[in-house]
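Entry:
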Amino acid sequence: MKPGVPIQVNGVVVDHLSATAAESFLTKDLPAPGTTLTIAPIEILTYLKLKSPRSKDRTDLIELIKAGADVSRCRRWLEANAPQFVTALDDAEKTAHAEE
């Protein structure tokens, strides 16, 4: 994270994250620099939530799954780009279903 982060956009707190050299897969699934992105695709949001060490992000992911996030789509994307997080996604899905 950079100093001054998180920032606010129209009163909404936003974390500014940059892809590392090892995360080139993120840039291929995002719009080109200089274009407007209103929301990250669910696959990338899932990856960022799983990558984060904060328990709040895991809770957010569980709530996204409860709200109907396409877990199969996210799993396929993770298998292709960040397979180390597939088990964590499966765990979040199990938790979400157990809490419904």
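Residues 23-99 form one domain.
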